[in-house]
Design goal:
Layout (H helix, E strand, L loop, with lengths): L8 H4 L7 E5 L4 H12 L3 E6 L2 H12 L6 E6 L5 H14 L5 E4 L17 H23 L3 E6 L6 E2 L2 E2 L16 H22 L5 E7 L14 H5 L3 H7 L4 H4 L1 H8 L1 H5 L3 E4 L13 E4 L9 H14 L5
Parallel strand pairs: 1-2, 1-4, 2-3, 4-5, 5-8, 8-9
Antiparallel strand pairs: 6-7, 9-10
Helix pairs in contact: 4-5, 5-6, 6-12
Bound molecules: NADP nicotinamide-adenine-dinucleotide phosphate.
């Protein structure tokens, strides 16, 4: 098993005082560790979460460690566009500039379901909610430039248990074909990658750069629709660790690298991968940055088409 990549110490000791970041899904797993590190370095972080009580608990836990920075907990339900709009309005009302947006929240292999706006649940939550959020926060990101948008994708954008990641424009929302939870996850995670790639093009010259990342196979609550979390965290933990599962703080390393390294800023739109499970052996060791082995991840026409469809679906004018 390749060794997990680790963010260099000089990035994790940068002084982030005066900088503001938004991290979605900041109450749990990789998002929690991302918030924790940024606040430790003196940043102000808006911890976006759908369960405010859990967000407040996470805030107290982080603040009990005596970091230099600040945390503001704000409600955000990515599966409800009205909530995304209210969240963005609240941020724009109180923050003139943002230096980084980490589109981290996500769900995986859920049973068939729909968001409040009628989108397939995984595409709606993982991609469309974040798409709208990013668009609405662009003015503050422009004011904060140089600033960054980091999409937390997955190596499963490549293949998720045999399902190749592809954007099925003929049936994006599983309305005609049989629903498959892994296929829907792979599509949504490819959408995260393509979103970052196309946004990078659109934002040339603005000072905003983008990246997508694979955080690694991380012990977190994400597994809950596939296996009981308690089993992952107890009896199966030693076996899963031996098979390559890493801890959430290690899972945050790729996001932090994409957010803080000069290299990521100079490679806008690139994909940064922790060690991962890919179709080819060469990619398994990951890389910051790395070429995805999925040809669909390099399809610029598909990225552009996804951008305009997403725009229309979330109700933005062309
Ligand atoms: N863990 C892995 O092995 C792995 C591998 C590849 C990629 N990733 C990606 O990493 C990201 C973080 O996942 P994680 O592993 O840290 O899992 P996690 O512990 O389950 O965290 C996911 C976060 O997303 C939030 N969330 C889910 N639905 C939401 C919604 N509708 N609105 C707002 N927030 C919502 C969750 O909130 P609640 O606490 O309220 O549920 C939680 O805060 C995801 O995008 C995932 O796809 C993870």
């Amino acid at each position: 098993m390749p060794k997990p990549l680790q963010c260099p110490a000089e990035l994790l000791t940068l002084d982030l005082a005066g900088r503001t970041y938004v991290v979605t899904g900041g109450n749990s797993g990789i998002g929690f560790e991302t918030v924790r590190q940024l606040v430790k370095q003196g940043a102000k972080v808006v911890l976006a979460c759908r369960r405010v009580v859990e967000g407040e608990k996470a805030k107290q836990l982080i603040l009990s460690e005596g970091p230099r920075g600040f945390i503001e907990v704000l409600e955000l339900d990515l599966a409800h566009l009205e909530s995304v709009r209210a969240f963005a309005k609240s941020i724009l009302g109180s923050h003139n500039s943002i230096h980084g947006l980490v589109n981290n929240a996500g769900i995986m292999n859920t049973p068939k379901g729909k968001t409040r706006d009628g989108f397939e649940l995984q595409l709606g939550t993982n991609h469309l909610g974040h798409y709208l959020l990013t668009e609405l926060l662009l003015p503050a990101l422009k004011n904060g430039a140089p600033s960054r948008v980091v999409n937390v994708s997955s190596c499963f954008h490549d293949k998720a248990f045999g399902r190749e990641g592809k954007v099925d424009f003929d049936d994006l929302q599983f309305e005609r074909k049989k629903y498959d939870g892994w296929e829907a996850y792979a599509q949504s995670k490819l959408a995260n990658l393509l979103h970052a790639k196309h946004l990078a093009k659109r934002l040339i010259g603005t000072g905003i750069t983008t990246a997508s990342v694979h955080p690694g196979w991380v012990r977190s609550n994400l597994i809950k629709f596939s296996m009981p979390v308690w089993m992952q965290d107890t009896i199966l933990k030693p076996v899963l660790k031996m098979a390559g599962m890493i801890e959430p703080w290690q899972g945050a390393q790729s996001s932090l690298y994409a957010l803080l390294s000069p290299e990521a800023a100079s490679r806008s739109g690139a994909y940064f991968s922790q060690v991962g499970i890919y179709r080819d052996k060469k990619s398994a060791k990951g890389g910051w940055p790395m070429e995805s082995p999925n040809p669909n991840a390099h399809d610029s026409a598909c990225a552009e088409r996804l951008d305009s469809i997403s725009r229309a679906l979330v109700g933005l004018t062309p």
